[in-house]
């Protein structure tokens, strides 16, 4: 027998390599496949038990239901009788051996209910199809989230590069700023820009105390001081002339003063 089997196997088409992927249709139905398990003889002797009488009766009914397709398959009446006789003999022999046959622990009556087994198989196939569909949806969602995460990482890296470049540029610019300007508050600078033009210098000594020690800046400091003093004097004169011009004509007649700006321009 083994040589014949090897000869028969030699005529079968060679199976495809393991690394090749078989093309499957997208809408292929999911089905449970039979699987053969090899049980140790010691396990069978120690853990398996015989079936109760009620279950044995269901097994016998199962044998009878299996006979019908084989008998009805033959159209010849003589062959039907022969098949029925042979199957009856096999069924009787199995029925005699059934009380002594060991079965796995936990075997239920429903295990030998053919219709119930078909219904349970269909239910399991439906659960398998739903679970497989959910897995595919989750895998697609994971791929989408991974793509979004990759985009976010690229944006984050770009923002970090821009932040480092801006920080480096700020440090470079701060190196060229005078120490006095570094101490100025930005809020004071904004208030000075929006406020009215006033020429006042408070605590002049404290303002220039730090830069007076620099000999290279002394000529510039003196020039700035002279310029500020000149601007203060001109501003004071302008304020005085404005107040005088606001006096009425009657006041100018009483005091004998001519318009202040005209007199000032004539003096020039």
UniProtKB/TrEMBL annotation:
<feature type="region of interest" description="Disordered">
    <location>
        <begin position="1"/>
        <end position="39"/>
    </location>
</feature>
<dbReference type="InterPro" id="IPR025212">
    <property type="entry name" value="CAD_CENP-Q"/>
</dbReference>
<dbReference type="Pfam" id="PF13094">
    <property type="entry name" value="CENP-Q"/>
</dbReference>
<keyword id="KW-0175">Coiled coil</keyword>
<feature type="compositionally biased region" description="Basic and acidic residues">
    <location>
        <begin position="1"/>
        <end position="12"/>
    </location>
</feature>
<feature type="coiled-coil region">
    <location>
        <begin position="121"/>
        <end position="176"/>
    </location>
</feature>
<protein>
    <recommendedName>
        <fullName>Kinetochore protein fta7</fullName>
    </recommendedName>
</protein>
């Amino acid at each position: 027998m083994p040589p014949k089997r090897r000869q028969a196997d030699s005529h079968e088409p060679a199976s495809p390599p393991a690394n090749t992927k078989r093309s499957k249709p997208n809408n292929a139905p999911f089905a449970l496949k039979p699987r053969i398990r090899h049980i140790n003889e010691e396990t069978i002797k120690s853990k398996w038990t015989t079936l109760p009488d009620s279950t044995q009766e269901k097994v016998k009914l199962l044998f009878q239901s299996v006979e019908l397709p084989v008998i009805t398959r033959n159209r010849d009446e003589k062959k039907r009788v022969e098949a029925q006789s042979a199957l009856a003999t096999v069924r009787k022999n199995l029925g005699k051996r059934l009380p002594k046959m060991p079965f796995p622990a936990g075997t239920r009556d429903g295990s030998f209910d053919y219709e119930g087994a078909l219904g349970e198989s269909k239910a399991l196939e439906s659960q398998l199809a739903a679970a497989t569909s959910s897995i595919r949806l989750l895998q697609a969602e994971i791929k989408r989230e991974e793509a979004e995460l990759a985009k976010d990482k690229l944006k984050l890296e770009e923002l970090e590069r821009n932040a480092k470049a801006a920080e480096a540029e700020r440090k470079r610019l701060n190196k060229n700023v005078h120490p006095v300007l570094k101490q100025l508050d930005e809020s004071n600078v904004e208030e000075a820009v929006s406020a009215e033009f006033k020429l006042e210098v408070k605590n002049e000594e404290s303002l220039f105390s730090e830069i007076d020690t620099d000999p290279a800046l002394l000529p510039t400091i003196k020039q700035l001081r002279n310029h500020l003093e000149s601007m203060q004097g001109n501003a004071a004169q302008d304020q005085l002339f404005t107040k005088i011009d606001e006096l009425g004509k009657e006041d100018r007649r009483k005091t004998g003063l001519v318009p202040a700006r005209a007199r000032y321009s004539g003096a020039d």
